Amino acid sequence: MATKVKSLKDGPLETSGAITVENAQGERKEFATDKQAWLCRCGASKNKPYCDGSHRRGGFQADK
Q1: What are phi and psi of 43, to 5 degrees?
Q2: 5-43 exposure pattern, b = at least 16 Cβ within 10 A, e = fewer
Q3: How many alpha carbons fall within 13 Å on the CB side of residue 51?
Q4: Model's pTM, two decimal places?
Q5: For 13, left (φ over 0), alpha (ψ -120 to 50), or beta?
Q6: What string of H, E and C letters represents the secondary structure of the chain?
Q7: Would you tell me how many other CB atoms lie within 10 Å of the CB of residue 48?
Q8: Other CB atoms within 10 Å distance of the CB of residue 63
């Protein structure tokens, strides 16, 4: 399965496929090809780089 990144309307980036995510502290997490991850775009998540739904409370709107 190829890696896929999809921008969700006014929400996070949805990833699928084999990916490695590295946070600001250099900690890495590997995702297998059959898993998904949602990455924060709004900057308000308390679980960065992952989305925790904060974009809904903050009224985040993404550029078109």
Answers
A1: 85, 0
A2: eeeeeebbbebbbebeeeeeeeeeeebeeeeebbbbbbe
A3: 21
A4: 0.81
A5: beta
A6: CCCEEEECCCCCEEEECCEEEECCCCCEEEECCCCEEEECCCCCCCCCCECCCHHHHHCCCCCC
A7: 14
A8: 4
Instruction: Locate 11 and state its tokens.
Output: 């929400």
**Tokens read off for 60:** 């985040």
Q: Please, what are the domains in the chain? A: 4-57 (3.40.5)
Chain mean position to CA 44: 12
What is the tens place of the pLDDT at every residue in 3-41? 899 999 999 999 998 989 888 899 999 988 788 899 999
Structure tokens at 41: 């775009």
**The tokens of 53 are what?**
């739904």
